[in-house]
Specification:
Blueprint lengths: L3 H19 L1 E3 L4 E3 L7 E5 L3 E8 L10 H24 L5 H27 L10 E14 L2 E5 L5 H61 L1
Antiparallel strand pairs: 1-2, 3-4, 4-5, 5-6
Helix pairs in contact: 1-3, 2-3, 3-4
Length: 220
Amino acid sequence: MKVLYTTLVVIILDQISKFLVKGGKIPFLNISSNGMEYGESINVIGDFFKITFVENPGLAFGINVNDTSKLLLSIFSLLASIGIFYYLYKSKEQKFIVRFALALILGGAIGNLIDRTFYGVIYGYAPLFYGRVVDFFNVDFFDFTIFGKTYDRWPIFNIADASVTIGVILLIIFHKSVEEKSSENKVENEICSTNQNMELVAESSMIENVKNNNREENKN
């Protein structure tokens, strides 16, 4: 289960970055951050890459949902995280890259789940499960349309979103190759087993022939 260290690192980096952007206080650690003003933007690489503080109440990359869907989304994220954790625990023999991809997805899911579940209560603006996700990576990109909305920049996202996206891409690429490899190994094992059975049959036939010849010789 060492792969879960990846999940832990993603969660820590995600929450630290959000704390620095949104601001707040951790009294028992005597730590505070002034954060950024909502909508404030800091150029990192000109206009191409900025740090822009926004919050979204819905899905990754700023895709919005209503209040009922938000609650269902929070509960679903919790159940999905438990499911992924259980699968990781049960699939210790799975190829490392697949477990690594799942660990990235789990870390990202938990990172945003913390925002949705606790931020409303921590920052005093909403009840449990109705918090808003902190986003801040603002990257220029070619124009595209998704869910009927056209974007001239990539939707603002965070470390958790990036972790889930990378994990899904790795899973799509490598899980298929793992299945194909497993299928090839299965076919090879079946062929070897068939060859071994044929060899055993041939050896048995030769032994039987020798016995029959010895019987004929003894009769003569």
